Amino acid sequence: MSKSHKLFHDAKKVIPSGVNSPVRFFEPYPFFAKKSDGSHIWDEDNKKYIDFCNGYGALLLGHRRKEILTSVSKQLKQGTLFCTPTNSEIELSKLIIGNFPSIEKVRLVNTGGEATMTAIRLARGFTKKKKIIKFEGCYHGAHDSVLVKAGSGSAHNGISVSDGGLDEVSKNTLVAPYNNSEELEKIISKNKDVAGVIIEPILANMGLILPQKNFLSDVRKITKDNNIPLIFDEVVTGFRVSPGGAQQYFGIKPDITTLAKTLGSGFVIAAVAGKKEIMNLLSPGGKVYQASTYAGNPVSVSAAIASIKTINKIKNQLYSKLEKYNAFLTSAIDDLASDMKISHQINSTSSMFQIFFTDKPVTDYISSKNADSKKFKKMFDVLLKNGIFIAPSQFEVVFLSDAHTKDDLSNTVNAYETALKTVKN
C-alpha cells in the first residue's frame, strides 16, 4: 500500500471525505503532497509530478519563488500577526490600484469567497436592493448567495444548489446563461430589484470558457444603462492574464473587483476593491459591515507585495512566454487528438487551457456539462501515472507558470499522447 493510500485511509477517519476541499478528491484516492519546487510537486512516496494544477491558478510564478520567500522570511522575523494597521497594507493597496485603473480603494480580506461575499454585500448596500445576477457555471466561492448553478467542485459533484442553503437567500440570486447578453437584458427588465451583476470575465471554473466577442462590453453597457454595479470576479484572472487582470486584457472597467490566488502566490490573501463611493460604505466609515482578525496579515501582505512587484518587473517577458508555451502545448495536444480522430475542443487563452471531449464548441455551462467527463477522467488517470498533475475535474483548468520549462512541455506532450491513446480505446 502506498503512503498516500494509507494516509487517505487515516484522513477519512478524522476529515470529512478525507479532504479539506471537494476539488482535491479523485478516485480511488488523491496523492498526498510532501514538497514542491519550481514547476514540480512531490508526493509522500517521493514521486515527482510536473504541476499544472498550480494551486488552481495561484502559482503564476511557480512554487517557492525566491522573491516571495525572501520577502516572507524577512517579515517572519518581525512578526506574524499584529491586528493593527501596518505600512505594508498601504503599500500593497497602492500596488493593486496602480495595476487596476478601475480600482480606487482596496479592502484586504483572506479568501476569494470572502471577497465575493463582501462585494455582493457592498452592491446591496450601495443600491439598497436585494437581487444579485450571476452566470451559469461561474464559481464565486462557497457561500449561499452564489452556490446556485455554480462551477468548480459544485459542478463536478453535481450540486446545483447546496443542501443547507436557505431558499430565502437563493431566491434572490438570478442566473443568466454565460455568453448571452440578451438573456441578461431580459432578466433585468423583469426584475427592478437588482443590486448587482457578478461575473468571471473568463469562466475558469467550468473548464475554460472564453467570453465571445462583445459579450463583456455588452454586459458593461447593460449594467451601466440600468445603474447596476458590475462585479468582476478576478480571483482566477487577476494578474494571470495580464498585470491588470481580465479587465485590462479586455479594456473594461467594472465597479467592484475581487482578487485572490495569484495576488498571494501561495499565501492566504484576497481583496475586494473598486470605486471609492462604493468602497467607502464599508465599516467603520460606512454601514456595510465586514471584519476579520487575519485581514491584512503581515506575512501574506509581504508575499503579495513581492508577487506584484515581481510580476510588474518581468511582465514583458512573462506573459509572452506563457502565451508561447500555451500555444505550443495546445497545438500539440490538438494535433494528437485530431490524428487519433478523437472528438474534442480545446479552449485556451494566455496561460490557461482545457480540453473537452465533444464535437461541439464549448461556450457555456450546458455545452461544458455535455462534454464526456468519463473520457476526461481516463485521461487524467494516465497523465497522473506518467507524472503530469492537472486538476482532477473536467470543470477546472490547466495552468502554466513561469517556472515551466521547455523540457516540461516536451514531457507533457508525450504524456498527453499516451493518455489520449487510452481515451481513444
From TrEMBL:
EC number: 5.4.3.8
A GO MF label: glutamate-1-semialdehyde 2,1-aminomutase activity
Keywords, sorted A to Z: Cytoplasm, Isomerase, Porphyrin biosynthesis, Pyridoxal phosphate
Localization per record: Cytoplasm
InterPro entries for this protein: 4pyrrol_synth_GluAld_NH2Trfase (IPR004639), Aminotrans_3 (IPR005814), Aminotrans_3_PPA_site (IPR049704), PyrdxlP-dep_Trfase (IPR015424), PyrdxlP-dep_Trfase_major (IPR015421), PyrdxlP-dep_Trfase_small (IPR015422)
Residues with N6-(pyridoxal phosphate)lysine modification: K261
Family stated for the protein in its record: Belongs to the class-III pyridoxal-phosphate-dependent aminotransferase family. HemL subfamily.
Protein name from the UniProt record: Glutamate-1-semialdehyde 2,1-aminomutase
Source taxonomy: Archaea, Nitrososphaerota, Nitrososphaeria, Nitrosopumilales, Nitrosopumilaceae
